[in-house]
Amino acid sequence: MSGAILFLTRWPIHEDERRWENRLAAPDLVFDPETDRVTYLCDEGGRSGVPADAERVHVVTDFGDVDAVLELVDTIVREEGPFDHVIAFSEILLGLAATLRERHGVPGSSPEETSRFSDKTVMKERVSRAGLRVPRWASCRTEEQILAAAEEFGYPVIVKPVRGASSQGVREIASAQELRALCAERSLREYEIEEFVQGDILHVDGVLDAEGKPSFICTSRYVSSCLDFEVLGAPLGSVLQTDPEVRARCEEFALRCLSALGLRSSAFHLELFDTGTDLVFLEVGARVPGADVSYVINDVHDVNLFRLWVDVLLGRPVDLPVPDMTLSGGWLIVQGPKPLPQKVTAATPLLDQVPYLYRELVPRPGEVLESRPGAYATLQGGRFLFRGGTQEEIEEALRQARAQYRLTTVPVA
After folding, report:
1. pTM value?
2. 328-372: per-residue pLDDT in tens?
3. Contact 316, 85 (CB under 8 A)
4. What are phi and psi of 328, to 5 degrees?
5. CB count in 10 Å sphere of residue 228
């Protein structure tokens, strides 16, 4: 028996069969009904992600109301007994899960450990102390200090929230005049400033066991970047890397970073720069990768990272297929037009038109595209999954999809 599990979820499962988001994290795929006694704590958005026959379900009005959530869980523990595990997949809920573990004496990541993977200054400090290269950075305090840091680093510079995800609030600043204007526009007390690093951006994803060793690990290279997607509207995607030298170099670097951060029994998504001569740490999340990364990994390598993470957390035996790392795959997200909302008048399906494309989510005429900040894995302007070719063939397929896809919309009054 795995014991009693408190599972925090805010992710819906959509009835629309075209949409695959959150399905790999569905409880029926990650928990075993024969051994796992699961209590679900969800908000209204996550209610559809809870099995219809679940016996222990508690709905919160707002996970952001931490005091109310703590009071509710206190009541659950008094009435139903203590928990052996507290599990959450959403990055937004990892801190709350850590607080609940500490409050109720449940083993697992503590608030201090969790902060290493949410506070960008903390993670860079620890990785830097391990002798690994990180961008030069400084916490934002006064306007004079921010301008001095920018002069030291050289323009352009990056200004970003200390705690944030999906490049929300990140700005590339080209000059002192632009930086002064940003300081006048908003308080930057919860931001940091760092040097601009020129190079390709890659991500290394997987799950570490209780000893910090990878149960599964793979490397992908972004096409475009999360920042370009958010600011410029450029399509975003990545391609699984098959070159053994590239993979070995990136994965060895990533594991050294994760060791410096003390990560154990966790999924991870680590981003890094490849400058051509050096690898530079960008940031890391103690979670399964977002967007469509986990779906491509599952479809190419038959590894569900959510299930693997739970297996490691619960101490279950891990029996994975031997992955063929010569196989590649990729994903591409085309952002909807701005400003949103917009009603779709036409879109061009690409299945059977672009090689190696095996699944797509293309909005239908009449559907309305709405703003969902930070939500890559939802109904966008278009989403496309690729597999079956070499790395070079998948990269070319993504280029073809970008060139051929057409979406037309009209503003919603």
Report:
1. 0.93
2. 999 999 988 888 889 999 999 999 999 999 999 999 999 998 876
3. no
4. -120, 170
5. 16
